[in-house]
Specification:
The structure is a homodimer of 122-residue chains.
Chain A lengths: L2 H8 L3 H9 L18 H15 L4 H13 L4 H37 L9
Chain A binds a DNA duplex (30 and 30 nucleotides) through α2.
DNA sequence: TATTGACTTGAAGTTAACTCTAAGTGATAT
DNA sequence: ATATCACTTAGAGTTAACTTCAAGTCAATA
């Protein structure tokens, strides 16, 4: 699979894919004789994981750390579990903050719909 | 209320509060004869709103736009409602993406706990 | 054969949201 | 009186995550 297809598939740009590779999140992707990247199934799986986690706002530095440990094999299992839990906790905090803001926005919109507008309430 | 108390109250830095003021999100805050800011109840309410929305990742440019319209009074009600809905939609997308990542992380952690580790699965 | 289009590289540029620095003021504690 | 402390300013610096640029290669098509 060529870079533009992969980009298309995940809604990323080719620049972003090369950037992720530069940062060591994925690859190094195998290249054909002409120097063109050819993504295989494992590359795709990895990109899918990265895309999902990045969409949720997880930092590249974390993903790099986790994936490096993954590549080191079974001896890193314990450490990997720990950082997954840590990231999930961070994510939970963010989710809660966002849910709170979401509910506040919903309430505000309802007030606008009912024309109950307090000049002093933002 | 002085700047450091307000910062403390909301878990912001004084630099951030002055930055928000520079950007026109809040204030201009009234100052005493010595030039020191004195935050009143309305300032606090506004900061609470900004803090909540920023914690959810809403952009400063949006908050600026919304709060400027708010200050213009009743004639902007319709436009305000529209941008609130728009922001809520954006927030919903993000919430969904984060929930998906959260669930994925939870599943992974469970696999780690049960020692079901597929070498080919990230 | 010439041009088009997708790819390649290293490096520089961009953006949002802070964060820090340097230099200064003014009230209070020793 | 002198030191400490919280505050003030304008402006420069930082960080993460891209994004763009300039210059080049290569295969396929008009």
């Amino acid at each position: 699979m060529q870079i533009s297809e992969v980009a298309q598939k995940f809604g990323l740009t080719t620049d972003t894919l090369r950037y992720y590779e530069r940062e060591g999140l994925i690859g190094p992707i195998k290249k054909g004789k002409n120097g063109i990247r050819n993504y295989d199934e494992d590359d795709i799986k990895r990109i899918q994981f990265v895309k999902c986690m990045r969409s949720a706002g997880l930092e590249i530095s974390f993903l790099k750390k986790y994936l490096d440990l993954f590549d080191e094999g079974d001896k890193t299992v314990k450490e990997r579990r720990e950082i997954l839990v840590e990231q999930r906790n961070i994510l939970k905090e963010k989710l809660d903050a966002m849910q709170e803001a979401y509910d506040k926005l919903t309430m505000k919109i309802e007030l606008y719909d009912k024309n109950i507008l307090d000049k002093n309430l933002i």
